[in-house]
Known about the structure:
elongated; 13 helices; 335 residues; alpha/beta; five-stranded parallel sheet; single chain
Amino acid sequence: MVLERGVDLFLSGAKVPPIDILVVGGGITGFGTARFLADVKGVYKGGGSVTLTDTGDLSGKEEELKKLKAFGVSLELGGHLVGTFLKGERFVVSPGVPLYIDEIAKAKERGVRVLGELELAFRFIDSPFLAITGTNGKTTTTALLGDILKNSGIKAAVGGNIGEPLINLVEEGSNVDYIVAEISSFQLEAIEKFRPQIGVLLNISPDHLDRYTGYDEYIEAKMKLFLNQTEDDCAVLNGDDLEVVERSKSLKGKKIFFSREKKVAGGVYLEEKKSGGRKIVSEVGGEKYTYDLDKYFLKGVHNAENIMAAIGASALVGCGGDDVDEAIMNFRPAL
Length: 335
């Protein structure tokens, strides 16, 4: 059963239950994580505590906090208590919390396992992941890819950095064909085994440099999307982004490129017609499909790339033709 397997992976390396689990950081992700862990404790029948800690008082979230207390979650708000960090045996860190804060750094020094919500959810979800990252365009591409799969008759749940936290999709995620997930660099910092069957990297440009020691560290965080991929997995990559192309040379999975500037064999590319108009051509998987870019609601250079990335990723799971065209034509990004 997936739940028991997830618990075994989460407890791996622990002495014996009960264990004390510390969720660091509130918000929608922290709330979902704490609630899930408190609920799943009964699976290993060991008890132990689940504590949610946040440096803020989370004012305005009284109803959510009340629900957490009902699940047996202890709350420590307005600052981190050293004693709680010292007794915790498993830490799950929300994306907004840097791993370099003193309390977490000291816990890691004493051998505490520190995981992110992405890693935790991955251990409890049996369906394969189609994961999208990049500096720009993640949300649009993730939502569009989800729509394409659903319009093609494929059961998909969409979440991550968009909509529902992945931990809230554990139950649903075991009853769908794929999880389509928007993934940020923050989420990738605290992975161990997370492995998407298909990873999409849209682009890389300087961002969040207040979080990282430099641009290179930010890029390395992004590239962790592919860290655990094998030769059986695939990477969908921007063939016009020099940083992406250079960094992709060491990837283990099959590489599928998309490009606005050139034809890419076996990939997805933009074709300017002499008679006017622009077509997206997909040769992924040996099947050739052509899509009329100019008739879609999504406009602009960046959206052309987002569409190509979504077409490439969906083609790898068998989507193409009219179902894909219809999904793109009807797609409207959230405001």
